[in-house]
Amino acid sequence: MNLKLSAAALAACAAFAATPLLAQSSSTSTGVSAATGRGGPPGSAAGASGGSAAVGDTSATTLGAGATSQTPTGSASALGMGGSAAAAEGRTQTRAAVHGERNLNGQAMARAQDGGTFSRSHTHCKTKAGVAVNCRNKSMAHTPGSKPEMSTSTTSSTVPH
């Protein structure tokens, strides 16, 4: 079976390229995984979600992309996650990981803080081998004394049978 991780890996790298370079300190991390399994009716599904938050001198971005396919001889899944955080004078924290064998589960988290001002983003993606891909992103930016700005995006895709 031919597995192609390049689409998921490129999608994770896009998160890094889209992050503005405003920081003296920044950090990034990625996680990529693939799996194969039993056969069934042919079809494929793909989904991605990502988001970013920026306020003051802080910025945080995460992205996740996944795909799964089903053929008469087996199934395959791929999942890529990534994140980036930047702060002019504060702290940054990022992490990304993908776990699983047939059904993959991945998360990417990024946070940047400069005093009481902070930005954060969290993306969570799941693949059910040969069945579906689900991704969700939640991002938030906050400045002391004001209401936090929040956003959520979700995508779901199923393999047609």
What does this structure look like?
The chain is mainly β. The protein has one domain (6-158). Helices cover 8% and strands 66% of the residues. It contains one helix and nine strands. The protein has one helix at 6-18; strands at residues 25-37, 43-55, 58-71, 74-87, 91-99, 104-114, 117-128, 132-142, 149-158. A five-stranded antiparallel beta sheet has the order 5-6-7-8-9, with no helix packed on it. A four-stranded antiparallel beta sheet has the order 1-4-3-2, covered by helices on one side. A hairpin with a 6-residue loop joins strand 8 and strand 9 (149-158). The longest helix has 13 residues, at 6-18. It starts with 5 loop residues before the first helix and ends with a strand. The model is unreliable at 1-31 (pLDDT under 50).
How are the strands of the biggest sheet laid out side by side? Answer: 5-6-7-8-9
Strand content: over 45%
Question: Biggest sheet, in brief?
Answer: 5 strands, antiparallel
Termini Cα gap: 20 Å
Radius of gyration: 17 Å
- Count of individual beta strands: 9
Number of helices: 1
So what's the overall shape? elongated
What's the overall average pLDDT, rounded?
81
Order of helices and strands: HEEEEEEEEE
Spans where pLDDT lies below 50 across 5 or more residues: 1-31
Estimate percent helicity: under 10%
Task: Please indicate the count of domains.
Answer: 1
What is the oligomeric state here?
single chain
Structural class of the helices, strands and pairings? Answer: mainly beta
